[in-house]
Specification:
37% of the residues are buried. The protein is built from 23 helices and 13 strands. Among the domains are: 195 residues, Rossmann fold (3-Layer(aba) Sandwich); 53 residues, no CATH class; 91 residues, Arc Repressor Mutant, subunit A. The chain has 534 residues and is of the alpha/beta class. It is elongated. The structure holds one RNA strand of 77 nucleotides.
RNA sequence: GGGCCUGUAGCUCAGUCAGGUAGAGCAUCCGGCUUUUAACCGGACGGUCGCGGGUUCGAACCCCGUCAGGCCCGCCA
């Protein structure tokens, strides 16, 4: 059973109606790691719906959180906004300075600036959650009841946090962070509480009162989270391992939400995605691959498969090089399998059966919509990569794949070719996928060359010097160089690939050579002969 | 200090929840296609399932211990 179905099954035991929640703080550029948060929730939702449950899938945007610091991609100007809620400060412009103009005119906040492109990417990938903005929820009174309980039971909450997380809270700690005279959540000391007002004194020496029913502040994270479960009615939430550790915010949250008279949601802790060789993704360090960037390179199904095929507790190492190649090929392999037939096989071991069922589940989750019909194109990523690099036009690619004017390639394949071309031109294309000629022959290439190979190489050079420089004649010249002395064409290809590309096999040479000047090719072959004879 | 995850073929991993004869892909090697594709087809090679105990008729799987690596508990998913 697919992991999402396992969670859905657990939910079915609890009831028929469910609110499945996800949440992210849009404090910077979104990355693939955030996609796991959302897709994990999306996949549980899909599985729950498949199981006949009534599901409300939500995405809570934590735009009530404060700006922690001036991130590397921000201008120093932002220091004035440290501690301010990211839903109430201007978005950065191209230089990283706060764009006051746009903020005034269009109301584009810092949070929206990062959120909007992410939502766009989510649509492309088939995720359409109900959006709940946290700051607006505070301002419109959704938190009233829970905030009051939190303030009334401040001592009990303090006890839970201190006991469960085993850390000591300051004497002036209070379960409500008021906004100060400048709109910052930092450096404010709570001096008293009298519902609905929390009295405070800020770092500027100003005193005031915060009305907890009007969003003049917020609950601290460890309370804010269970408060959301409670007023929204969340029954299931997947969250990162940072929240899931012992003494972490889920552990305190599950007790705190009971103070609100609410039962904690079904948890699912997921591992992080790291960029191969560079550690965890982090918005502030710039060590990211954005969902938008990734979607330019591959179809959404492949990105979904990345999340679907790994259990949540499995750390994922991702990169836009060979990982992507393998992932895309895995996707094609899955598509071309005949699961019905595999399941009918006799003497199917339990292990084998589980494997097939998980593959079916992962593929189902990879679909952008549940109605999508996935078609196998029978063209692997590697192969398409090869064609895109060697063919001079799209038409030539289609022709090579056997498509004609009357039998046109499917749009999904056209889309893949376009993305492939972007990938090839980008920095992401791994060296081993790039087609290139060897300019300076390496002597170790010829270690295994015997007399036959050397003889063929000499003839090959002569053939290429005299033949017409088009792909047909070049194509004949290569095997002829061996045939003319009664040898298998195989040797000729081995020689040609070894000398020109430094490997024993490769893509069809003739069309590639035809695109390159004859003199350059001859030069390479001559250098090889020189090295061999020396 | 507390907790989590990982350790299975050269590589990447599945299989561990519901114990029942060690799996996939890639890589390698061999063969075929008297060379449309680093394609495709067929085959081979390859594992003391980290280690040691225990439970069991039977353990990669459950229990205890142990080693190694990674990570979290400072609101970075």
């Amino acid at each position: 059973m697919h992991w999402a179905d396992v969670t859905a099954q657990a939910l079915a035991h609890r009831g028929d109606k469910h609110v499945i929640s996800t949440g992210i703080t849009p404090s910077g550029e979104f990355h693939i790691g955030h996609l796991r948060e959302i897709l994990t929730g999306d996949m549980i939702s899909r599985a729950a719906r498949n199981a006949g449950l009534d599901v409300d899938f939500i995405f809570i945007v934590d735009d009530a959180d404060p700006l922690r610091k001036v991130y590397p991609f921000l201008d120093e100007d932002y220091s004035q906004f440290i501690g301010h809620q990211i839903g109430s400060i201007p978005a950065p412009d191209l230089e990283g300075k706060p764009d006051f103009e746009k903020f005034k005119k269009d109301g584009l906040s810092y949070a929206d600036y990062f959120l909007n492109p992410f939502l766009e990417a989510l649509r492309t990938i088939g995720v359409v959650p109900r959006i709940i903005k946290n700051m607006h929820s505070y301002q419109s009174g959704q938190f009233n009841e829970v905030s009051k309980i939190a303030c009334d039971k401040a001592d009990e909450i303090r006890e839970i946090i201190e006991r469960v997380s085993s850390r000591e809270l300051a004497d002036d700690w209070f379960p409500w962070s008021p906004l100060d005279s400048k709109g910052s959540l930092e450096g404010v000391v709570v001096t008293g509480y009298e519902f609905p007002l929390v009295h405070w004194k800020d770092s500027h020496g100003v005193e005031g009162s915060s009305d907890i029913t009007k969003g003049e502040g917020k609950l601290p994270w460890r309370i804010d989270w269970p408060a959301k479960w409670s007023w929204i009615g969340v029954t299931c939430e997947a969250f990162g391992k940072d929240h899931g550790a012992a003494g972490g915010s889920y552990a305190t949250g599950r007790e705190i939400c009971q103070l609100f008279g609410y039962q904690p949601p079904q948890p699912l802790t997921y591992e992080w995605i790291s960029l191969k060789g560079q550690g965890a993704m982090s918005s502030s360090s710039g060590n990211t691959i954005g969902p938008i960037e990734a979607l330019e390179l591959v179809p959404p199904e492949i990105l979904r498969l990345l999340i679907a095929q790994s259990k949540p507790n499995k750390a994922i190492e991702f990169d836009t090089g060979m990982s992507l190649v393998n992932l895309a090929d895995e996707y094609e392999r899955l598509l071309s399998r005949n699961f019905d037939q595999e399941l009918e096989e006799e003497n199917l071991s339990r292990r084998k059966k589980v494997q097939i069922e998980d593959a079916i589940g992962a593929l189902g989750m990879a679909k952008v919509t549940t109605e999508s019909i996935l078609e196998s194109s029978n063209v692997t990523f590697r192969h398409l990569c090869l064609l895109a690099q060697t063919k001079t036009s799209d038409e030539m690619v289609w022709k090579s794949l056997g498509y004609t004017d009357t039998d046109k390639p499917p749009t999904s394949l056209v889309d893949r070719l376009n993305k492939m071309k972007i990938w090839i031109e980008s920095e992401h294309l791994p060296e081993e996928m790039r087609i290139s000629l060897i300019e300076n022959p390496q002597s170790e290439t010829f270690v295994e060359f015997g007399d036959e190979e050397i003889k063929v190489l000499e003839i090959l050079k002569k053939e290429l010097e005299t033949c017409d420089w088009n792909k047909e004649d070049i194509g004949n010249a290569i095997p002829n160089s061996a045939k003319s002395i009664e040898l298998s064409p195989r040797i000729a290809y081995l020689v040609a690939y070894s000398t020109l590309m430094g490997r024993s096999r490769g893509p069809r040479l003739a069309p590639i050579l035809a695109e390159i000047e004859r003199t350059r090719i001859i030069q390479i072959l001559e250098r090889c002969l020189t090295v061999i004879n020396s």
